[in-house]
Amino acid sequence: MIIDHPLLGPRDAAEFVVLGDASLIDRPDGMTATVEEMHDYAYLRDNPAGDHRELWYHEQGDRSWLVVTRSTLTHEVIKVELARNVARAQGRSR
Amino acid sequence: MTQAMRIEGGMVDRERTLAFSWNGRWMTGYQGDTLASALLANGERLVGRSFKYHRPRGIFSSGSEEPSALVQLRDGAAQEPNTRATTVELFDGLYATSQNHRGPLAFDLMAVNDLLSPFLAAGFYYKTFMWPKAFWERVYEPLIRASAGLGRLSMQPDPDAYDHGFLHCDLLVIGAGPAGLSAALAASRSGLRVILVDEDFVPGGRLSAETHEVGGQAGADWVAEATAELAANGNVRLMTRTTAFGAFDHGIYGAIERRTDHLVDAEDRPRQVLWRIYTRRALLAAGATERSMAFGNNDRPGIMLAGAVRAYVNRFGVAPGRRVAVFTNNDDGLRTADDLSDKGIEITAVVDARQGDVVEDTIGRRGIRAIRLGDGRRIDADCLAVSGGWSPNVHLTCHHRGRPVWNAEVVGFVPGGELPPGMSVAGAANGTMTLAATIREGHGAGAEIAGDLGAGGSPGTPVEAVDESFAAAPFWHVTGLRNRAWVDLQNDVTTKDVRQSHQEGFRSVEHLKRYTTLGMATDQGRTANVLGLALMAEAAGKSIEETGTTIFRPPYTPVAIGAFGGRARGEHFRPHRLTPSHKWAEENGADFVEAGMWLRAQWFKKPGEKGWRDSVDREASQVRKSVGICDVTTLGKIDIQGRDAAEFLNRVYANAFLKLPVGKVRYGLMLREDGICYDDGTTARLSESHFVMTTTTANAVLVFRNLEFARQCLWPDLDVHLISTTDGWAQFAIAGPNSRALLAKVVDDLDLSNDAFPFMACAKCSVFGGTPARLFRISFSGELAYEIAVPARFGDSMIRALMKTGEEFDAVPYGTEALGVLRIEKGHVAGNEITGQTTARMLGLGSMLSSSKDAIGLRLSKRDAMNADDGMRLAGFRPVDRSVILTAGAHFLNPGDPADMAHDQGWMTSVAYSPELGISVGLGFLKRGTERMGETVRAYSPVRDQDVLVEVCSPHHVDPDGVRQRG
Question: Can you tell me the ipTM of this complex?
Answer without folding.
Answer: 0.99
